[in-house]
């Protein structure tokens, strides 16, 4: 049975919200943001039975940051995804420490290959070929991630 997955553009444009964040607290060198998004999605089949499956999802995230010293900060991020199938998927859960130029994170973060293929492996046909080859192509648990925040 061949399945055709479509994003219902009319529904998505009418009901889907873009990612949003609200600053809940910002005082005493501590900032707390809560954000997320809701996507109305559907999966349609081309077998003639007019079957439609709800593939909608919602994401909720919490982002916290505090200044340890004048030049060093600590950072924590958590994001969970909710679907009709009652999935309890933690997408991101990490802590980090950094300064204005660098940040080191530990936890469930983006894999190194995924950071590259998210921008380069985006063909309509035969896309996502590289990103399915390794566990580092998606989010991975218990990993360190080093990020350069500014280019000198």
TrEMBL record:
The record describes its membrane topology as: Multi-pass membrane protein
Which Pfam families does UniProt cross-reference here?
Porin_4
Q: Which Gene3D superfamilies match?
A: Porin
Q: Which residues form the signal peptide?
A: 1-21
Per UniProt, the keywords (alphabetical) are: Membrane, Signal
Instruction: Establish whether keyword Membrane is in the entry.
Output: yes
Q: Which residues form the Porin domain?
A: 8-146
Superkingdom as given in the UniProt entry = Bacteria
The listed locations are: Cell outer membrane
Checking InterPro entries in the record gives:
Gram-neg_bact_OMP (IPR050298), Gram_neg_porin_domain (IPR033900), Porin_dom_sf (IPR023614)
- According to UniProt, the name of this protein is Outer membrane protein ompU
